[in-house]
Amino acid sequence: MRVLLAIHHPLSQDLGAPGVTLALGRALQARGCTVDYYGYGEAFPGEQHHSALHNLRFPWILSAHLARVARRYDVLDVTTGDAWPWAQAGRPGAARRHALVTRSHGLEHTVSEQLRADAREGKAHLSWKYPLYHGGFRLWEVARTLHLADCSVLLNDADVAYARERLRVPASKLRLVPHGLSEAFHGLPPPAPPVDGPLRLATVGTFIQRKGREDVIAAVGRLHARGLAFTLTLYGTGTPEPEVRAAFPASVQPHLRVVPHYAHATLPALLAHEEVLLFPSHAEGYGMALVEAMASGLAPVSTPVGVAPSVVHPGRTGLLVPIGDVDALVAAVLELAADPSRRHALRRAAQAEVQGLTWPDIAARTQALYEEVLRIRADSR
């Protein structure tokens, strides 16, 4: 089977959706598929910095590329919002037997609705430009692609429900397929028993409002005021350390460590020194950082976004708190801090919970989906 994986990002193992795309491609290749990739590196050769303008141009550049090469592939697996010009034009250049699959790494509509809700509550600021593209035309592009594709792959139940109920995409064209964990996160040693000392907290993800930045800042300020001894390490902020530190109260800053960037393969070793993951995200397509931290033996305190409701079972594999509820976030951390043995049990259970998420399994499910779509298209001709 010949597959093209296309994504509106530069392809890099150390980035979220691109890293997942590469992992899926390798797993499909291991099953005998021929896999090619098309991302920003191919669409914009030589350009190192990308903006919303690149997002706007990508569907058209990709569509011109597909018109030239689509006949080489059985399956064109393209991120949502990007294949609609080509599909709208009648799929020029495609082989008679082919499938167009669109893949969401987080449905833009659900993210937009949460962002708008945060803005109404004064928790986020939206530029006047937001409704023009990200909160406007881009949402139309995504919806149009969902309707034109033969099948759409989504990452969580909420996104599937939204696409079916709000965007009116037929349920028969929607599939829920999660991400896998790379080999680096399998077979890790169980978490070490608790030791005396400050509670070791961690966040993993970019230092932005959507990831719960303000909630973390407020929560650790309150924890410090309550007298809790803790450290907080922020991994993968993408923001320079001085800027991250300056966002926290001065009294908290001595307890912080900031790691703006890291090689993805090193994350298990980095997290081996932590105990509790703070994951108060306001919107996620999946939440790869959550499952990777759980695999590394951290007890998660998470909001019910993305994959979290499927893997964070309150009181068994972690704790769930409402979106934007700083009081609940503080209470959850204090609960774990007060009972080291329970905290350790949650860490072990969290690690065990995600061990079934493997890329070979996800690739097998994905290939079966491709074959199903190809069969349906062949039968309908």
From TrEMBL:
<feature type="domain" description="Glycosyltransferase subfamily 4-like N-terminal">
    <location>
        <begin position="20"/>
        <end position="181"/>
    </location>
</feature>
<protein>
    <submittedName>
        <fullName>Glycosyltransferase</fullName>
    </submittedName>
</protein>
<dbReference type="Pfam" id="PF13439">
    <property type="entry name" value="Glyco_transf_4"/>
</dbReference>
<comment type="similarity">
    <text>Belongs to the glycosyltransferase group 1 family. Glycosyltransferase 4 subfamily.</text>
</comment>
<dbReference type="Pfam" id="PF13692">
    <property type="entry name" value="Glyco_trans_1_4"/>
</dbReference>
<dbReference type="InterPro" id="IPR028098">
    <property type="entry name" value="Glyco_trans_4-like_N"/>
</dbReference>
<keyword id="KW-0328">Glycosyltransferase</keyword>
<keyword id="KW-0808">Transferase</keyword>
<dbReference type="GO" id="GO:0016757">
    <property type="term" value="F:glycosyltransferase activity"/>
</dbReference>
